[in-house]
Design a protein that fits this description.
Elements (H helix, E strand, L loop, with lengths): L1 H35 L2 H32 L3 H34 L11 H21 L2 H31 L4 H33 L10
């Protein structure tokens, strides 16, 4: 009986990793759309959202069924709770990708100009956080998860710098307000991706160590 239970846990983990791959691909596509201003790539992001949402519901249902039928304890219980939380964060990463694609589509109505913000670099860092957090989940490595938490400060700093630079540009060149505002919102979307990676890392620490480090200054 317990062999079957642990096979179900493995299946749950595999489904979550599929979810992670879909969310990560959506973010990568949205940034490629920003970089190239390719509205066709935006459409690919929009089309991916229903599949991500369906998989989120499927994973949640499977996790809830395991909780109800198997009544797991200790680390197995924490694993399933962590999967439910991580699943929600990955779905929201997909939402951020859609939000970015919406902004890119709006920017397509204006001339493509150089803006004082390095969106691809911010995207690279926030995506690296997600990948590292998921790697810590795959390996059950709480120390690796802990290292993700420290990366969030750099993402926050880049987002703050983007806000300052784009706000200044809007004051100096009001005619560039639409492009600047959209870029500012995209930077904020990427900062939120970093926040979701932080949440995932915190859930890995909860699963492995049984410690709730959410809202902890020590994190």
């Amino acid at each position: 009986m317990r062999v079957k239970f642990h096979q179900s846990l493995d299946e749950l983990k595999e489904k979550l990793l599929v979810m992670a791959g879909m969310a990560e691909q959506a973010i990568q596509r949205s940034i490629e759309a920003y970089r190239t201003r390719d509205l066709g790539i935006c459409e690919l992001v929009f089309r991916s959202e229903p599949a991500i949402n369906r998989l989120e519901r499927e994973i949640d249902q499977m996790a809830l069924d395991l909780l109800a039928m198997e009544q797991p304890m200790a680390i197995d219980l924490r694993f399933i709770v962590a999967v439910i939380r991580i699943n929600a964060d990955l779905e929201r990463v997909g939402d951020q990708a859609v939000n970015i694609a919406v902004r890119v589509r709006e920017m397509g109505a204006f001339a493509n100009i150089d803006l004082p913000v390095d969106i691809p670099k911010l995207a690279s860092l926030s995506s690296a956080m997600v990948r590292k957090a998921l790697q810590s989940f795959i390996e059950g490595d709480a120390e690796l998860a802990q290292s993700v938490l420290k990366m969030d400060d750099e993402v926050d700093a880049m987002n703050d710098a983007a806000f300052y630079a784009l706000s200044t540009l809007i004051k100096e060149k009001p005619d560039l307000t639409p492009q600047s505002l959209n870029a500012l919102i995209i930077a904020r979307n990427l900062e939120r991706v970093g926040d979701h990676a932080t949440n995932i890392a915190e859930d890995v620490i909860f699963w492995v160590r049984g410690a709730d480090v959410r809202h902890s200054a020590a994190s």
